[in-house]
Amino acid sequence: MSATRGRKGDDAMFIATLIAADRLDAGQISESLDRLNAAGCAVIGSGWLDQGRAADVMFGQSPDVARTALEGAFDRVDIVVQAMMARPKSLLIADMDSTMITVECIDELADYAGIKPEIAAVTEAAMRGELDFGEALDARVALLAGLDEAAIERCLAERVKIMPGAIALVRTMRSRGGTAILVSGGFTRFAEPVGSAIGFNRVVANRLGIAAGMLDGTVAKPIVDSGTKEATLLAAINDLAIPPEATMAVGDGANDLAMIRRAGLGYAYHAKPVVAAAAAVRIDHNDLSALLYAQGIAASEWVTD
């Protein structure tokens, strides 16, 4: 299958990228063309990004209609719809817990204190947007008072795993001149080593109070929350002198909503329902490498070391 171009300028072109967690076949791409034609989206053509894994379908109008026509149409296939001109991104703002790593650090710390179920329930409610983030964080951290500081390093070594695709995403974007900022409602003692291991330019996170080698049950103020994440995005746009369309944000919880909405393209990554419903893009099936395919970057161009 080859890409067809030339009927419209890039400023009038949109792209739907189909990204398969398992395998993408020509029949699914043909069906996507049919669906877009039936929806009146003025199909232009299609082409593989990586054969069997990811493909682009180009069309000329009605991106919201196209998204509705394609999302959920194919089993274990994520759909990214966007304008061609806005496709390459030069700034990534990312959440950490359950986004760049596979766990919620505060829940895992709580396990060392023997109170994981109690704290995890509050974490889940906060990520669904049912509780004020700052108040919920203060309440959870207070329950950890008296935990040996050594539990942080144990947790980091034993529980914290980098999300598949995270290293490729960040290092590939940076190799192309992009900037990546990790903004976490979690803690610097986790975010700083995670950010360094993945390759982020900068890390913003909360600071746990520690006294006499134990957690003292406090977190430094002001808390890094939804407003901080949004402000970090806006400040980076200004500092880098880039258009908002050149930015992307990715997260999974309610405290990521503001930055996801303000970014040029906001991704809900294996996200809570409130986030999935609000984001321009849902990644439900693939790992973070989907965000590279969405930028038109084939696997042969990814940087992983």
Polypeptide structure, described:
The chain is of the alpha/beta class and 305 residues long. The protein contains twelve helices and twelve strands. Strands 7-6-5-10-11-12 form a six-stranded parallel β-sheet. Strands 2-3-1-4 form a four-stranded antiparallel β-sheet, covered by helices on one side. The radius of gyration is 20 Å and the shape is elongated. The two termini are 31 Å apart. The model is unreliable at 1-9 (pLDDT under 50).
List the helices and strands and how they pair.
Blueprint: E1 14-20, H1 26-38, E2 43-50, E3 54-59, H2 63-70, E4 77-83, E5 91-94, H3 105-112, H4 116-127, H5 133-143, H6 150-158, H7 166-175, E6 179-187, H8 188-198, E7 202-206, E8 208-211, E9 214-219, H9 226-240, E10 247-251, H10 257-262, E11 265-269, H11 273-278, E12 281-283, H12 290-293
Parallel strand pairs: 5-6, 5-10, 6-7, 10-11, 11-12
Antiparallel strand pairs: 1-3, 1-4, 2-3, 8-9
